[in-house]
Amino acid sequence: MSDFPRIQLLTPKRGMPPTHFADLSAEQRVSALNELGLPKFRANQIARHYYGKFEADPLTMTDLPEAQRQLVKDSLFPTLLTRVRAVETDNGDTTKTLWKLHDGILLESVLMRYPGRATLCISSQAGCGMACPFCATGQGGLDRNLSTAEIVDQVREAAATMRSEGSRLSNIVFMGMGEPLANYNRVVSAVRQITSPAPDGFGISQRNVTVSTVGLAPQIRKLADEGLSCTLAVSLHTPDDELRDELVPMNNRFSIADVLDSARYFADTTGRRVSIEYALIRDINDQNFRADMLGKKLHDALGSRVHVNLIPLNPTPGSKWDASPKPRQDEFVRRIIAQGVTCTVRDTKGQEIAAACGQLAADEKAV
Ligand code: SAH
């Protein structure tokens, strides 16, 4: 296990896209339009198109004077995401869309439709520098951070799709490619735009936005202080540092005690329950003693303000690891619950189109 790729925090290989309307705060939008010689009210007008109607092409914004549409497009609406293809599964309930970014990097987002809600799984970075050995994205390293607008625009696209189906996008999970808290400022700014009421944002409930992290403890504390009531998910995957140092190499920097302490701070500060993600891997982290230790540690640290999401491992191509057998999984769940901690098993949507956890865009890269 000593030959893991090294953790990369910030070594972007390629460039950020040009500034987009969705990179800007409400005040910045007004000054950007001012610089183009447009009055303040145009900023709100354009925001109503983008955030309220999910439209990103100024040429179709017919309430803008015709002469200004091209100017606004050229200055503030560079094309961020170009659809390469979309694949459906689960009887059309799950759609994986492959996007090309301005510099040719490929990115995916996954839209999952459930009765009464629709969840979009988005990426915060192209690639990932966290090097978790069971995750396909982690094997390829980090290409670069996504810009705020590249994150926000994934949401706009899915929101438009849901509206065209007569429904609405209700939930966002930062569980696609990348470590959201390693791209902290852009992710927080994206969360604000995803959750602010129109015309400043898409108006998705903060509680329905989940930020999932390997456990960058200082950034978890910082996130707690942002005044957002989004959901925090911590990818723990084992309750002991010895194994976690291997499964989640960032554990060498921030130990389980430190991560759980920061999660407790998050729960205390926001009043929100914390989710713990645990990919169950056969004969690696699925033993009874680990279930007992996990339940106890979580109960001690967080009491009833914690929920375990068990994810059956989705084996990546060539991986020597596999999911645990069903009876093992059932016993693991039972033991966690016996410690007073709630636990559910994540359903594995999108598996046959490689849209499941950790697999986004990896197959295309390999071609
Ligand atoms: N960097 C963030 C987001 C990653 S993806 C984080 O680590 O939380 C979201 C979840 O999918 C994480 O819990 C991640 O560990 C998990 N995951 C990655 N690859 C997986 C796989 N092959 N099978 C099951 N879960 C996986």
From TrEMBL:
Domain of life: Bacteria
Active-site residues, as the UniProt record annotates them: 108, 357
Keywords: 4Fe-4S, Cytoplasm, Disulfide bond, Iron, Iron-sulfur, Metal-binding, Methyltransferase, rRNA processing, S-adenosyl-L-methionine, Transferase, tRNA processing
Cofactor info, note text: Binds 1 [4Fe-4S] cluster. The cluster is coordinated with 3 cysteines and an exchangeable S-adenosyl-L-methionine.
Localization per record: Cytoplasm
Main location as per UniProt: cytoplasm
Record-linked Pfam families: Radical_SAM (PF04055)
Cofactor(s) needed by this chain: [4Fe-4S] cluster
Domain Radical SAM core: residue ranges: 114-352
Binding site for [4Fe-4S] cluster: 128, 132, 135
Protein's name according to its UniProt entry: Probable dual-specificity RNA methyltransferase RlmN
Species of origin: Corynebacterium timonense
